Amino acid sequence: MVCKVAAVNLSPLDHYLYPPEVAWEIDQNNQKDYENLAISLNENSRVSGVILHHEYGIYGGEEGENILAFAENCTQPLLVTLHTVLPDPSPKMKLVTGKLIQRANIIVVLTENSRKILATVYPFSIGKTYVIPHGIHATNFSSTHKAKRKLKLSSYTVLSTFGLLSRGKGIEYVLTALPEVIKKFPFVKYLILGGTHPAVRRQEGEKYRSELADLVTKLGLKDHVKFYDQYLDLEHLIQFLQATDIYISTSINPNQAVSGTLSYALGTGRAVISTSFTQAKEIITPKNGRLVPIKNATALSQAIQELLKDPDQLMAMHLNAYESTRSMLWSKVAEEYSDILSQLVLPPLKLNHLKKMTDNFGLFQFAQLNKPNTDFGYTLDDNARALIVCCQLLKQKHSATNVKKLLATYLSFIECCQQEDGSFVNYIEYLSKKPTPQNSIEDLSDAQSRAILALVEVMRTEQLSQSMKDKARNIFVRSISQLNTFPHLRSKALIIKSAISAYGMLVEFQPQLKMLIEENSAALVTALMQHEQPSWYWFENELKYNNAVLSESLMAAGVFLKKKEYLDIGTRTLQFLIQETFLTQTNSYAPIGQSLWYQQNQERGYFDQQPEDPASMILALMNAYEITGQQSYKNLARQCFSWFLGNNSLHLSLYDYQTGGCYDGLHPDRVNLNQGAESLVSYLLSRLAITNITYDHSTTS
Length: 701
Known about the structure:
It contains 26 helices and 21 strands. The protein is α/β, with parallel strands linked by helices. The longest helix is centred in the last third of the chain and has 22 residues, at 510-531. The model is unreliable at 695-701 (pLDDT under 50).
């Protein structure tokens, strides 16, 4: 991934000699600059996404509101990193931050606590917030001796603090702590590294630095404190940190979300004494340092003395600090950003593999790698899903001629599967094009109910000819006497969805359709009552496949029948399912593994993960969003879709960018490289559903 940077200048008079990575410059106080940059990026075909690092002091306007001129005009996929996250923001700050979160496709914060605050203050951030730590530079671990010799500090015990100087640093509390330290450790030297913050210098000059210098004189610390009033380049900064015995992180803001200086010090392998601000409380442990109360010079003094009196313990802290921060290397951070951004960019909608898997009769069930495996013939279930895919493609105005040809094939296949009594067979043999014996030994209700749903989709697709819709209607009407015979919960759920969708089109059958909705909904509620426990709010005593359709159908029934009870049960069971399948720590979706169903009160199975399950969840979440308007459902749908693109337990893509196919699932150690029909149509249904909530510039081929 190649990255280019847009630099923000303080004013039109500020001009800097930027490195080649900087491709654009904008004046922080000029909203038009932000708008023009957004338009430029929108029109640039080489731009696949934008990462926006947000800090309130960087952008112009009240609480940095000028950045909204960029965000609201940018149509590229947008990842926003929030460096400052406050639990009690001002009204203006909350407004600016809220608008950024709503526009962003992905939010990145630097600590777990920041994620929790966002979820509380901005509930619509739930489902699209990732935690990526502040990065650190790759350095070799070393003792302090070599760096001290280079800096002519070998005779000292070195304490240090670095960063742009401002009153929020709290340096005065460290200075006040030093006299008691020096009584016991007379060779202590405290290094204050860094120039005054440019914004502070513009407002008050060097007033704060002068106050600190006066305090040094007053406390008799001239031989023990040294100011380095300059911006240190990386090489010299690392050298000073490597010479440090104890780094002191001095923030006086308890809500400071992150400190790059703290991260750098730990990453260099240095024990840290820090005030108790947000990031420090997450990252500082007794093994790598000490936490002290904010603005408490006495506590600082005691902590410094405690660490200095035990050199062996101090060296162990240095090692622990170094080892515990290897996951924070900039290379790893960059990789995480790249992975997340790549999951934001929707792959183009390719129908190549769908066409390859379809002959003049129907869609083949299985594939050997990316080639149709004719040995297992065709299934009603796969062709019904493919029929729904074609309807959705037409509704989104994709390649009508090719899609209509495929659609006609799948509809004719469903017609071929229909029996005299209106029911359907599922398995059709390749050579004879006749039903196989497998139809008589398996329950076919799931496949039949999915065929019903597909027929209704055809009837609802305005882009189709009346003759095509009439054909679907006739097949549906012939099957209507069978629709109350399906015993399984997922079949009942699909019939609820079908009957609701068909209700407005089949006026003469409305009493029957309403009865189907009522009876099947009641059956789902009864199943819930039979199986729910305090920690298990589900319709069965196990989670299996295609789970989300149960919750989705009850939510739809609640709206249709105006029964709040059904809507509440639908949303609560969906929330239970979300809780069991979305992994908060990794911001990823983990389908129930088909190698071991998740039995109540037992360990859940994680493999074999198959694409049908995320497809079901995405559709349920999208419908939940349409019903409730809750942004979190939309965020979770996008997160769930990223499972296909590599945001999964193996970090491997299941989508084949070359063929347009989808691999058949995740094993514990590998991807199943076959690209069968169920996986393909599950991916396509998911991809089409997610198009509506993602900035999309792709085309169909």
